[in-house]
Amino acid sequence: MDGPLTKGSGFVTEGALKCYRGFMADAKAVKRKLPKGRHTSQIKRQRQNLKQQARNLTVRSQVKTFIKKVVHSIEQKDKAQATAAFQSASRIIQKAVTKGILHKNNAARKISRLAKKLAKLAA
Length: 123
Description:
The mean pLDDT is about 80. With about 120 residues, the chain is mostly helical. The chain has helices at about 15-35, 40-75, 80-100, 105-120.
């Protein structure tokens, strides 16, 4: 498969690949549906937006998954696993900020809430 999302590129999962393929199918359908009078730049922009939306979806999903791992380990009262999960979750959240998917205040709020829960576990 050609395109920016392949199995060997970072954190791409099989579900993300299916989602990306679905968006690409939608992009082709959008191109066919547009009337001939539309601008070609607008068609290209729509195509790019669909690709970006698929990429952003995978990162957002990953952030949610890592947050769930932290919360689950806190509920199990496993301090060592919770701290390890918290470190990986905060790293993933910061990466999402760097990529422009999450706002920095949103990320800070998520990390702060997780840290607060983790501190309760330690106390």
